[in-house]
């Protein structure tokens, strides 16, 4: 990804789509960096200042990644709209390479083609791992990789449009991809905010309540009939609170309480006894 940034910088010229793609490539490093940092901090043991451990660092990293994704979409959209309103006519002239005059657009297209290949491969490999780990940070990183290659494809269309005399093609192409990025970014921010506010566990790719959470809640209600069950997400884990019952002497195994959901997802079950029992 670093090599893509270098290639894009030297080939961007005055193209709006190329400048937008360069900024997008720079910000696309944020989710990857936050994932790597969070994965180092998460397994650390609890301390006096952090008595509950660091499992929720994944939630903080997810919010940072979601904001970065939204910033990418916002920047690209602003630049594209500004250029369309101002009716900027980008020019792509020739350059001399080894004594030969070559249209700079060909170099831009070559750089964009190169910028497409690694994100396609990396994004394809990250998605199944993110789903297996229930890691929304890695999932956002994969979404950023998707935005990378989409920006590259759209940039090629924009450069070709300039070559054919359509001055607006460059900015219009950048705006189209910006809307797609913004949609993913806003959706990720909604999910990350719900997670930090102890909301119901959400799906990996949207703000809807997780089907896994519904399954765990149903099995807890079956095991403790008449009790209220609340679930919240703590990083990649779920924490359940069962109200209306004193803590049982012996808890069933997590496998019994989770069913088809991986048992590691349920970090713990807390019990809140009835009010009269507390008195």
TrEMBL record:
Gene3D superfamilies: Cation efflux protein transmembrane domain. Pfam families: Cation_efflux (PF01545). The keyword Protein biosynthesis does not apply. The keyword Transmembrane applies. Keywords: Membrane, Transmembrane, Transmembrane helix, Transport. Residues 7-197 form the Cation efflux protein transmembrane domain. It is found in: Membrane. One of its GO terms (cellular component) is membrane. GO terms for molecular function: monoatomic cation transmembrane transporter activity. It is a multi-pass membrane protein. The chain crosses the membrane at residues 20-39, 60-81, 101-122. Belongs to the cation diffusion facilitator (CDF) transporter (TC 2.A.4) family. PANTHER family: MITOCHONDRIAL METAL TRANSPORTER 1-RELATED (PTHR43840). This is Cation diffusion facilitator family transporter. It comes from Aurantiacibacter arachoides.
């Amino acid at each position: 990804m670093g090599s893509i940034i270098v290639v894009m910088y030297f080939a961007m010229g005055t193209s709006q789509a190329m400048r937008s793609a360069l900024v997008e490539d720079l910000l696309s490093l944020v989710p990857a960096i936050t994932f790597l940092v969070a994965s180092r901090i998460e397994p650390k043991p609890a301390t006096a200042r952090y008595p509950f451990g660091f499992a929720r660092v994944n939630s903080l990293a997810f919010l940072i990644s979601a904001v970065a994704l939204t910033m990418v979409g916002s920047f690209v959209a602003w630049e594209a709209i500004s250029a369309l309103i101002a009716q900027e006519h980008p020019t792509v002239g020739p350059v001399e390479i080894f004594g030969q005059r070559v249209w700079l657009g060909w170099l831009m297209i070559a750089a964009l083609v190169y910028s497409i290949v690694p994100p396609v491969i990396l994004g394809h490999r990250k998605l199944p791992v993110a789903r297996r780990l229930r890691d929304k940070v890695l999932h956002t990183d994969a979404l950023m990789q998707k935005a990378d290659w989409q920006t590259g494809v759209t940039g090629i269309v924009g450069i070709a449009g300039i070559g054919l005399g359509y001055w607006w093609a460059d900015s219009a192409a950048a705006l189209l991809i910006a809307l797609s990025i913004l949609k993913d970014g806003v959706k990720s921010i909604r999910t990350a905010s719900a997670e930090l506010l102890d909301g119901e566990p959400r799906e990996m790719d949207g703000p809807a309540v997780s089907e896994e959470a519904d399954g765990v809640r149903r099995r807890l209600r079956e095991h403790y009939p008449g009790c209220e069950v609340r679930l919240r997400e703590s990083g990649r884990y779920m924490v359940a609170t069962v109200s209306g019952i004193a803590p049982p002497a012996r808890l069933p195994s997590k496998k019994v309480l989770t069913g088809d959901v991986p048992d590691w997802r349920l970090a713990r079950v807390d019990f809140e006894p009835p009010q009269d029992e507390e008195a």
